[in-house]
């Protein structure tokens, strides 16, 4: 504004306004930028360096080259156990979670009565989280008097064949997956919004062509909401790769390492054994795996994900 | 690319009513859908009702078989007993202080950064925004160890600083979310204030924030919920029992009483109540926010 009295230099004046705006801009994003440097980029570079050392936070901090990585990949059976447990969980929990949310959204989209009440109920699992709910699941899966085994017994399962859930290495992961499906019910909102956006006339023309509801679902609904499913797949897998804190509370990784998830192994290595260098190497392997899976999904998505612009 | 879709979703827009309309078998289809929804609702509600039922049982009925749903007598005293058997009041105060400060820090810093990214032009903005988006793909496990090292070198272990301070530095996700809302505010409104000589901080506080309170409320509620339910960070950074939050306190209460299920469930119900209350009061923001954040929280 003070430049207004100076000779006619409109360009210079606008440049000044622009400079002032830029200065404000940097000030406004400063919290993020400082946080990014101090809590993300800095720590990540440190962690990358530490992954090539025998760092233990107190005394040792010597360069060991790729020894941590070699040891993890060739000698550490618990590393592979943790990786396969995590893969097991992701392979079942992610698709089942998507199916649960999508099923509820499809049903709600049939214009049934009581929409508001149903929405509130199905949203509850998103609200009920934390340690309290994990304790509830421990109780629900109680082998003797828990809800699930009581129901199975009534359905005719022999008393001796009832699963021991969190006490049995074969059933501990399925128990966690059932738990995750309950929580995934709350995801229906995401699909419902997408379903509402599917143009009605597409179903009408499909019906004229004699397509069954099942065929309509696969030929019309799925392609049209595929971007949402794809997004859920990407974030769901990335989330499943980092699933571990539940097992810290419920099972501490047991029985016999059947719920030792990747994150839990990092946690134990870093904060119980204080092998920070080794844990950092594990974290970087996780980052690389996550990036590789995301990259693969992006590449495959061209075959099945349809964006609106291409259809209409 | 994965992130370009929610950008479309994020704009608050009225839901279009009606979905596919079937011509034949309409009534039967709806009836079946209704029946399926009732069955699914029961499956969702069952565990929660079981929790309340257990919390009201006398000692002897907890392990009774077959399980009975209505306790006899109803033991309201379990709640007082559970609350008194550990310093839960102290834990609750800690949890509340933790959640409120994190919520304040997040709303403040994320709305500042979001304003910068959405309404101000400066060199490198788009690049920095891209950097911010890509940080959302980094697993938290990668920064967990080095952050712990950083905070322990600063001497912050066993204080609330490592839990609260980072929230004042604009996390990527909520900054991104608010930026999407802020983009929808017409520039003319801001220009008018600029013409009157207002500076950007004033415009942020007096024009932008009042216009976007629903979005801010969504961010606040989700941050509060996240901090209230956070277990890992308080466990990692707080050793002193007097500093425990409800989540850590509840977990250690469980280790001490792992067969007293009626007390464990009573304590659990009490821990869940505040969030449940917030949910019923602010349901609109919760559900709106969930269709945006649900994807990330799994």
TrEMBL record, chain A:
<feature type="transmembrane region" description="Helical">
    <location>
        <begin position="87"/>
        <end position="108"/>
    </location>
</feature>
<dbReference type="Pfam" id="PF00528">
    <property type="entry name" value="BPD_transp_1"/>
</dbReference>
<dbReference type="InterPro" id="IPR035906">
    <property type="entry name" value="MetI-like_sf"/>
</dbReference>
<feature type="transmembrane region" description="Helical">
    <location>
        <begin position="216"/>
        <end position="244"/>
    </location>
</feature>
<dbReference type="InterPro" id="IPR000515">
    <property type="entry name" value="MetI-like"/>
</dbReference>
<comment type="similarity">
    <text>Belongs to the binding-protein-dependent transport system permease family.</text>
</comment>
<dbReference type="GO" id="GO:0005886">
    <property type="term" value="C:plasma membrane"/>
</dbReference>
<keyword id="KW-0472">Membrane</keyword>
<feature type="domain" description="ABC transmembrane type-1">
    <location>
        <begin position="83"/>
        <end position="297"/>
    </location>
</feature>
<keyword id="KW-0813">Transport</keyword>
<feature type="transmembrane region" description="Helical">
    <location>
        <begin position="120"/>
        <end position="140"/>
    </location>
</feature>
<dbReference type="GO" id="GO:0055085">
    <property type="term" value="P:transmembrane transport"/>
</dbReference>
<protein>
    <submittedName>
        <fullName>Sugar ABC transporter permease</fullName>
    </submittedName>
</protein>
<feature type="transmembrane region" description="Helical">
    <location>
        <begin position="21"/>
        <end position="46"/>
    </location>
</feature>
<keyword id="KW-1133">Transmembrane helix</keyword>
<feature type="transmembrane region" description="Helical">
    <location>
        <begin position="175"/>
        <end position="195"/>
    </location>
</feature>
<keyword id="KW-0812">Transmembrane</keyword>
<keyword id="KW-1003">Cell membrane</keyword>
<dbReference type="InterPro" id="IPR051393">
    <property type="entry name" value="ABC_transporter_permease"/>
</dbReference>
<feature type="transmembrane region" description="Helical">
    <location>
        <begin position="281"/>
        <end position="300"/>
    </location>
</feature>
UniProtKB/TrEMBL annotation, chain B:
<keyword id="KW-0813">Transport</keyword>
<dbReference type="Pfam" id="PF00528">
    <property type="entry name" value="BPD_transp_1"/>
</dbReference>
<feature type="domain" description="ABC transmembrane type-1">
    <location>
        <begin position="92"/>
        <end position="282"/>
    </location>
</feature>
<feature type="transmembrane region" description="Helical">
    <location>
        <begin position="31"/>
        <end position="52"/>
    </location>
</feature>
<keyword id="KW-1003">Cell membrane</keyword>
<feature type="transmembrane region" description="Helical">
    <location>
        <begin position="203"/>
        <end position="224"/>
    </location>
</feature>
<keyword id="KW-1133">Transmembrane helix</keyword>
<dbReference type="InterPro" id="IPR000515">
    <property type="entry name" value="MetI-like"/>
</dbReference>
<keyword id="KW-0472">Membrane</keyword>
<feature type="transmembrane region" description="Helical">
    <location>
        <begin position="127"/>
        <end position="148"/>
    </location>
</feature>
<dbReference type="GO" id="GO:0005886">
    <property type="term" value="C:plasma membrane"/>
</dbReference>
<feature type="transmembrane region" description="Helical">
    <location>
        <begin position="160"/>
        <end position="182"/>
    </location>
</feature>
<feature type="transmembrane region" description="Helical">
    <location>
        <begin position="261"/>
        <end position="282"/>
    </location>
</feature>
<feature type="transmembrane region" description="Helical">
    <location>
        <begin position="96"/>
        <end position="115"/>
    </location>
</feature>
<comment type="similarity">
    <text>Belongs to the binding-protein-dependent transport system permease family.</text>
</comment>
<protein>
    <submittedName>
        <fullName>Sugar ABC transporter permease</fullName>
    </submittedName>
</protein>
<keyword id="KW-0812">Transmembrane</keyword>
<dbReference type="GO" id="GO:0055085">
    <property type="term" value="P:transmembrane transport"/>
</dbReference>
<dbReference type="InterPro" id="IPR035906">
    <property type="entry name" value="MetI-like_sf"/>
</dbReference>
